[in-house]
Design brief:
Structural class: alpha/beta
Number of strands: 9
CATH class of the largest domain: Alpha Beta
Shape: globular
Largest sheet: 5 strands, parallel
Number of domains: 2
CATH architecture of the largest domain: 3-Layer(aba) Sandwich
Strand order of the largest sheet: 1-5-4-2-3
Order of helices and strands: EHEHEHHEHEHEHEHEHEH
Length: about 270
């Protein structure tokens, strides 16, 4: 599919490649605030909005978690409605350092498409946001099954066989609090690499040496065989893409995350308090 795309690109890459990619606004908020409303108030020029709840997630359930992967047909329809073609390069952004946009980028890359996170997100754009929306068009995007080798289930995430990385903030990992799930804590044996500690206050990735050190402090030197999880399989994608950006290889996503695990009352919970 042409040149290899790194998981993260700077705005300078976008400026150097006009007309060669689709910008996708992926803003979404755990507190239920509307990403679509944020898009309507102002977004990057020519960006299309991709609704995480509608197109990047399936129905929530105790057995699948809060944001399970959608059926491949649903994802393909979402891409078509956004005007995204099979051959398109997609650059996705949010206003949270890419930890939300990572879900779309991971889904596209996992199914063989060219996609990257815009490093720094909305704030990386040197101009002013716009309220103008692109003219609607229907993309040509076929259905692709989710490859089994990029996914891990709850047994693999908790069986002690694979290194497991928790991408949530430290207070949730430690078990100090959990605003959305019934049991605080983490999967026993999992190490904590909070994805938001890989970015600075402006949403840019920290220098490579610092980011690599974040993983190394947790004992992670390679993504091979690792399982990444978070609350519901969204921000865990950011850690997977960061490791790929660093040349550490590819891990797997436990998409059900803590929202699934915390509701499996037969499974033990660990805390650090």
């Amino acid at each position: 599919m042409g040149e290899e795309m790194k998981p993260f690109v700077d705005w300078s890459w976008c400026a150097d490649n006009p007309g060669k990619f689709v910008l996708a606004d992926c803003r979404w908020y755990l507190d239920g605030s509307s990403g679509r409303d944020a898009y309507d108030r102002g977004h990057l020029p020519d960006a299309v909005f991709v609704d995480l709840d509608q197109w990047l997630s399936g129905p929530a359930s105790p057995g699948a978690g809060r944001n399970p992967l959608p059926e491949p047909e649903v994802f393909a329809e979402g891409m078509r409605q956004a005007g995204i073609d099979e051959s398109d390069t997609v650059v996705a952004y949010d206003d949270a350092g890419g930890v939300i946009a990572a879900r779309l980028v991971w889904m596209l890359r996992s199914t063989g498409h060219k996609a990257s996170i815009l490093n720094g997100g909305l704030a990386a754009y040197p101009g002013e946001p716009t309220t103008n929306t692109p003219a609607p068009r229907t993309g040509d995007f076929p259905v692709h099954a989710w490859p089994a080798h990029v996914l891990a289930d709850i047994s693999e995430a908790s069986g002690g066989t694979y290194p497991v990385i928790d991408a949530r903030n430290r207070d949730r990992y430690d078990g100090l609090q959990d605003p959305v799930d019934p049991r605080p804590g983490h999967i026993p044996g999992a190490v904590n690499v909070p994805c938001r500690e890989n970015i600075d206050s402006s949403g840019q990735l920290l220098p490579e040496q610092q980011v690599r050190a974040n993983f190394e402090r947790a004992g992670v030197t390679s993504a091979g065989n690792t399982v990444s999880y978070c609350g519901s399989g969204v921000t865990a994608c950011h850690n997977l893409l960061v490791m790929e950006q660093l040349g550490m290889g590819s891990g797997r996503l436990f998409v059900g995350g803590w929202s699934q695990y915390a509701r499996a009352n037969d499974r033990p919970v660990a805390t650090t308090i």
